[in-house]
Write a structure and sequence with these properties.
By secondary structure, the protein is mainly beta. The protein has a single domain (10-101), classed as 2Fe-2S iron-sulphur cluster binding domain, sarcosine oxidase, alpha subunit, N-terminal domain (Ubiquitin-like (UB roll)). It contains one helix and ten strands; from the N terminus they run ββββαββββββ. The chain has one helix spanning 40-46; strands spanning 10-11, 15-16, 22-27, 30-35, 53-54, 61-62, 75-78, 81-85, 96-98, 100-101. The strands form three sheets. Strands 4-3-9-7-8 form a five-stranded mixed beta sheet, covered by helices on one side. Strands 6-5-10 form a three-stranded mixed beta sheet, with no helix packed on it. Strands 1-2 form a two-stranded antiparallel ribbon. The structure holds FE2/S2 (inorganic) cluster.
Length: 106
C-alpha cells in the first residue's frame, strides 16, 4: 500500500497531478513503495520519513529545505552514489536509498 495521504492531488495552477506507476524501493534496507518519477524525497515524506542526512561536524539531522535542488539538505546515498539531491531525483523501481552521515566522497 502506498502512503499518499500527504500527496498533492490537485494544484491551483498546475491542475490535476498525474502519478507514475507504483514502484518498490528500499530506504536503509526497509522496503517502501512510491510512484515512479516522483522525487525520492516525496516518496520518503509520504512514508513519514523526515531525516535524509546528518551533518558531518555536529551530526544534526537534515531533510527537505529548499525542495528545488539548491541547498543540499536532502542529499542521500542512492544506489551507492553519495550526495544525491533527492528532492530533484526521480524515483525508480528497485532504488537503494540510504541515510547519509556527513559528507561522503566517492
Ligand atoms: S531540499 Fe534543498 S537540495 Fe533538496
Amino acid at each position: 500500500m502506498i502512503a499518499d495521504d500527504m500527496r498533492m492531488k490537485d494544484h491551483p495552477i498546475l491542475g490535476e497531478i498525474s502519478k507514475g506507476r507504483p514502484v518498490e524501493f528500499t530506504f536503509d534496507g526497509k522496503t517502501l513503495t512510491g510512484y515512479e518519477d516522483e522525487p525520492i524525497a516525496v516518496a520518503l515524506k509520504a512514508a513519514g520519513l523526515m531525516v535524509h542526512r546528518y551533518t558531518s561536524k555536529h551530526r544534526k539531522p537534515r531533510g527537505i529545505f529548499c525542495a528545488i535542488g539548491r541547498c543540499t539538505d536532502c542529499v542521500m546515498i542512492v544506489d551507492g552514489r553519495p550526495n544525491v539531491r533527492t528532492c530533484v531525483t526521480p524515483l525508480r523501481e528497485g532504488m537503494d536509498v540510504r541515510t547519509q552521515y556527513g559528507v561522503e566522497a566517492k
